[in-house]
Specification:
The structure is a single chain. This protein is mainly beta. 9% of the residues lie in helices and 40% in strands. The chain contains 2 helices and 12 strands, in the order αβββββαβββββββ. It has helices at residues 3-20, 127-131, and strands spanning 42-52, 55-60, 65-71, 82-93, 104-118, 144-147, 150-159, 166-170, 180-186, 194-203, 215-223, 226-234. The strands form 2 sheets. The chain has a 5-stranded mixed beta barrel. The chain has a 4-stranded mixed sheet with strand order 8-9-11-12, with no helix packed on it. The radius of gyration is 19 Å and the shape is globular. The relative contact order is 0.19.
């Protein structure tokens, strides 16, 4: 990556950082949670849980579940093992009515699937040629986290829109060091006309069971400044890593439509 391109990417990332901070201005749950305004919105990453015949509910990273009692997306097709970016309005919660085990009844204002993948097979010497070595930037430390059994990443990279970028997570040493992973990006020589943002979630269910213990999960990411290791906490028991649903720091939908 040449100096001009890298400076342009960093400048774009600074702009993204300003946009990401905008969510801090969104309304959070009010002190009086017994009443909600239809004008209030919440934004979160959630797991889609299909119930058959197009019916689904949403599960937040803190384990709370939401039932879509109303939606602006009636044609949404829920799929198993799918993470989604959800904009919603709370209609009622478990303190005000009998919700049948759900924490909230909500109106889904917008829902957009996030690229959701399993950990990819380790290909040894072919990892670089298949999975790529193109750098990415993760704008803020909390743009990479473990939630609801997934590794979730929000990233920015050069993007030209000419070809789909290939995004993966690999486990180079599953026997000796199973909790060290590598985030991989193959841009397939897509020209970097601008900075594009992307989201991806990786199902961590194939990792060894931690048997109730919380372990370090080390994620290696190649950035324009070299390799960076993100040290996260992982526990097979998802409830021990609950992250409040109001802590997400960005509201922008992915600007990269071509990810696989």
């Amino acid at each position: 990556m040449n100096g001009k391109m890298m400076n342009g990417l960093r400048a774009s990332v600074r702009i993204w950082a300003v946009l990401l901070a905008a969510i801090l201005l969104l309304p959070a749950c009010s002190d009086d949670e017994s009443s909600y305004s239809l004008g209030d919105i919440w934004i979160a990453i959630a797991t889609v849980v299909p119930q058959g015949d197009g019916v689904y509910y949403l599960r937040l990273d803190n384990g709370e579940t939401m039932w879509p009692a109303a939606t602006n997306y009636p044609g949404y097709r829920p799929r198993m093992d799918q993470r989604a970016f959800v904009n919603f309005t709370i209609l009622a919660d478990s303190t005000t009515s009998n919700l049948g085990g759900f924490a909230y009844y909500v109106k889904v204002n917008a829902i957009h699937d996030i690229l959701t993948k399993p950990i990819a097979p380790d290909l040894g010497a072919k990892n670089d040629s298949i999975y790529g070595t193109d750098p990415v930037l993760i704008p803020q430390e909390d743009n990479i986290w473990v939630g609801d059994g997934y590794l979730n990443i929000y990233f920015v990279t050069d993007w030209g829109g000419k070809t789909a970028h290939y995004i993966n997570l690999i486990q180079p040493d599953p026997e000796g060091d199973p909790y060290t992973l590598e985030f991989r990006h193959n841009a397939y020589d897509d020209p970097g006309y601008s900075a594009g943002a992307g989201r991806v979630a990786f199902n961590l269910g194939s990792l060894p069971n931690t048997e109730g213990e919380t372990v370090d999960l080390n994620v290696k990411v190649l950035t324009p400044d070299g390799e960076k290791i993100y040290r996260l906490k992982y526990n097979t028991d998802k409830t021990k890593l609950a992250r409040p649903s109001s802590s997400y720091t960005d509201e922008s939908i992915s600007g990269m439509t071509d990810l696989r």
